[in-house]
Amino acid sequence: MLGGMTEPAPCYRCLKERGHIMEWLIFLVVAAAIVAGVFWAKKHFRDEIDRAKRINRANKNK
Fold first, then answer.
1. pLDDT per residue over 4-58, tens digit each?
2. Model pTM greater than 0.85?
3. Inside any domain, residue 47
4. For the CA atoms of the chain, what is the radius of gyration?
5. How many domains in the chain?
6. 52: domain range?
């Protein structure tokens, strides 16, 4: 043994980097889910959104 017990295990750096990769993956999955949710809501609630826009335009002209 060259380093003895004073050095951290060689995989410590790999585990640390993997932790950052996992954080980024979790962040990307959450961001993708939010974007997908917005698109889903726009698709399924388009009629209500258009109706609200028409009502707001009609009230603006009064």
1. 556 555 565 665 666 677 888 899 999 999 999 999 999 999 999 899 999 999 9
2. no
3. yes
4. 26
5. 1
6. 30-62
